[in-house]
Amino acid sequence: KMTQQMRDLQLAQARKPPGPSSPNAAKRLYRNLSGKFRVNYASFDEGSLVGRGEKEKLRKSYLFQSNAALFEAVELQDLDRMQELLKQYSPEELDLNTPNSEGLLPLDIAIMTNNTPIARALLQAGAKESPHFVSLESRSLHLSTLVREAEQRVNELTAQVVNEAPNADCSEKEKQLKAWEWRFRLYKRMKAGFEHARVPDAPSNVHLLVASSSSVQVTFSEPLSINSAVVTKYKVEWSCSPTFSPPLGEAVIDKLKNLHFTIQGLVSGTAYYVRVSAYNMKGWGPPQASVPPFAIPSNWREYDGRAPRRRGQAEALDHLLGQVKTVHQHCVCHEPCKNQPQSRKHSVSKSLKHLFHPGSKFLKTLKRGLYLTAIFYKDDNILVTHEDQIPVVEIDDTYSCLLMQDFLWFTKVSCMWDEILWLRQCVTVSQSSCSCILQTRFKMLLAISQMQGLLGIQDLGQVFFEPVKDKQGNILIVTLKEVKTNQTFESVRWVPVCKLQTSRKSVSSPEEPTALDMLLISIQDKLAYHQRSSHALSPGLYLGYLKLCSAVDQIRVLVPEQLPNILCHVKIRSNPNISREEWEWLQKMASVEEPVPAEPEADTSQNPLFQELQVAIRELMTLVNIPLQEAKDFRLYSQEVLDFGDKVSFLLLLPPSDDVCTAPGQNNPYTPRSGFLTLPLQIFELGEER
């Protein structure tokens, strides 16, 4: 059958345009023609394809050629070319898992020629073995057939070349002969690779851990031995019996990018044994039991039956807000807003046109007072008004209240951008008799409404953690928002940040810059802060360091510049779950008056969490520039594990009680190295919530 296919292809060769210069490349293109990919190349030459159909057929021809090129790269063991094709095309476009006319897939050729780098790259891309090989016997028979037919074809072509006189046809047959000789050698190499292969050894580094109260996770690595064929899949088995009789379940893993598996739906408090085995073209190898041999699904909350701290909090706050709104809904001041939608959602493209409307009330210069500025940015560009100014509106030109209290109140309001109209009308009720503080906050709400109206955007973004103040008495409250849409806005001017910084004509001296000048000078740092504060930690268990310092009107917390929405921290491990057994051990350690020893003792040296904590504490102390000997008086917060969703959790390391919060004027002998900053505690809490 295969021989007849090749003869048919040879007859069509004269009608085809010149192929690749390599005989093997030419045969590679012909050999991979199948019913799915067969294209009449003469029709391309005649120009008979038109319109959309022509484009579609042309695209398919390109994909066919890329599929053929992939086979050729694998056969020639060209790893660079194969990786280039995998980057350029998707697995579907390459037909990565569609057998060719010989019933082979690229992965089959790679593993039977024992080309480990190419086989692993194909497995990472999602390649599979041919479904034709249902048994060892069927694979062996298939390879023997390929070798026999290739040898027969070589003999036929050799006889034709020897017996025919030199001419054009003879030259063409010599090329065919060379191609078939090369293919004959390839098939023999594949057959020898299969015959000499053996089943794989057991996987290495099989570790079992408790993932939750109803699941365990097993992680593993490839077998240590490299003398067998490439492993193409793994099998995870679990049971309540150490003999695995009866087995409870199994799972086959053929996506080998991450060698781990989470077993779900288990019963809390029950011991489960797990083992893993590897598979290659010769079959399944011996299983490897996990370390430890079993795990009991559990969570630290089971120790005392504690419910999650945040359970129901969001619902309770929504309910409370609804009650407050109900009480105020009959106020006269709210009559005009009954028909007002709760959330005004203007399109950004429409609303940003207001920036260039001649009636805009954005300020050009600052007088002595309190102001609000909104920074919208996209990539390295910033949005400005028609006068190349950052949008600024006035809050109060006679501000004389306590700035930090009002600023922190403003940051809380930023969580309710859609409710500004309602909040403003609530404050209006007692406007005639309100205090200086209430008057200022009412003006803040007015300024927010003005900014939202001029921009046509409800969400003004995140408040920068501190106002910008100058010596002339100007104070700027700054909000930042990244515009991620790719939509093209009409009449909108995005100005590169660097251009805005260089083109602005300063009206102040370098010794006493105005708040606007100070904002422009530091705008890159503020944009970087905003981007970093939205980054999330990768899943895992972390050790955090809680360090506070107090001032007259606020408490500040130490955070890293790279992740200002989280405490100073190091990662303990990738598994965020603390099991009940581990939490019991932590409680036992917390009840001991003596500090945790620097070197592991006999009863704790086998505890993985103890060893992980020791490494993490050393790393954290180095990070915050505290000598390790000083950490002997530090303690772990043992009241709870701080859970941030299901994938991130924290254990807290606390200094001695007298040093948790540094008072004004108190010396801190150990100052962290560069790369840290202190945020107001309320700002930090809001950032963590975001």
UniProtKB/TrEMBL annotation:
Region (Disordered): 1-25
GO terms under biological process: establishment of mitotic spindle orientation; regulation of establishment of bipolar cell polarity
Residue ranges of every copy of the Fibronectin type-III domain listed in the record: 202-299
Region forming the signal peptide: none
Ranges annotated as spanning the membrane: none
Gene3D superfamilies for this protein: Ankyrin repeat-containing domain, Immunoglobulins
InterPro entries found in the cross-reference section: ANKFN1, Ankyrin_rpt-contain_sf, FN3_dom, FN3_sf, Ig-like_fold
One cellular-component annotation, GO: spindle
PROSITE patterns assigned to the protein according to its UniProt record, in alphabetical order: FN3 (PS50853)
Name of the molecule in the record: ANKF1 protein
Species this protein is from: Sapayoa aenigma
Gene that encodes it: Ankfn1_1
